[in-house]
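Hey L., structure's done. Input below.
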Amino acid sequence: MKLIKAGDVSGLKDLGVFAGWLMGIFLLGGLLWYGTQHARVNMMIRSVNMVLDALEDPRRLKSPLTSRSTPEQGSRFSLVGTNGRAVVFSVITEGTFVPFVAMISPEGKVEELVPLTGNPDRVFARLSPGMLTIHTRRIEAVEALIASQGDEE
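Output:
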């Protein structure tokens, strides 16, 4: 009993070549993503600091913070000159992508949400206060979890 006909072998070869190319593209993409992580973090720090400078905010991001076992709620950074932290995250509402930086006190409470856009008043007018409250509570919950576990590097 034959399971594969003679004409089907070329189709299997084509499928194998296609699958190999696809796996190679994903592998290359993953290696590039992993290999450029440091450069991407530095570009984010530089970009956020430029926006804070344009807004005449004296706070600056310093270096990324990592934790081993907490859910991600944006990218966490330490601040220059203080022991506060900042979380950079984005909100997508009504088809609008709005990046924010949340300034966090040493006690783990969100002090201020700073939109990283050209017109912050318009951003706050378009976003519902409930959505901002949800994100604020999530960030504070993650900060409380990190503080309780002592899980910060």
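The first strand starts at residue 61 and ends at 64. The chain has a mean pLDDT of 84.

-- N.
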